[in-house]
C-alpha cells in the first residue's frame, strides 16, 4: 500500500506480470515494456491511484487476464495488436476509462464476459478477427453510443446482454 512508483526500463526482459503483483498499491502510472506477453489475473486490481498505463505499439502482449485492471482509475488503454483475448472482468469497474484504442490489424478474437463493463467508454471498435463478444462484455457502459464493426468482420456471436444498459 506504500508503493507509489514503479519504473521498468524500455529494454527490460520482463515477460510476465504475475498474479496480484501490484494489486492494492498506490502507483499512479505504469509502463509495460515490449517483451511482456502476459498481464496475469489481478495484477493491478484495486489500484485506485492508477490513471495511466503505457503500452508500446510494438508490444508482445498477448493476454490480459481476469481482473487485471479492475477497479483502477485508468483513463484510456491501448490494446496491442498481438492480444488475442481480453479476459473476463479485465477492465471491470474502471469508471474513468473513456477510451479503448484497438488497432485495425489487431489479433483480438474474444472479448470475454464483463471485460469492459461499468466503464465510461464512448465508442468501441471491434476489430475484424473478433469472432465473439461475450455476455455482459460492455454491460452498464452508460456513455457507449457507438460500436464500429468493419465490413470484413469475422464476428459470429454477440452473447446475451453484451451491450445491455448502454446508450
Structural class: mainly beta
- Distance between the ends: 37 Å
Shape: globular
Mean pLDDT: 97
**Beta-strand percent range:** 15-25%
Number of strands: 13
Task: Sketch the major β-sheet.
Answer: 7 strands, parallel
- Side-by-side strand order of the widest sheet: 1-3-5-7-9-11-13
Poorly predicted spans: none
Helix content: under 10%
Order of helices and strands: EEEEEEEEEEEEE
Number of helices: 0
Radius of gyration: 15 Å
Describe this structure in words.
- The chain is mainly beta.
- Helices cover 0% and strands 20% of the residues.
- It has no helices and 13 strands.
- The protein has strands spanning 16-17, 29-32, 38-39, 52-55, 63-64, 76-78, 85-86, 99-101, 110-111, 123-125, 132-133, 146-148, 157-158.
- It has a seven-stranded parallel sheet with strand order 1-3-5-7-9-11-13, with no helix packed on it. A two-stranded parallel sheet has the order 2-4. The chain has a two-stranded parallel ribbon with strand order 6-8.
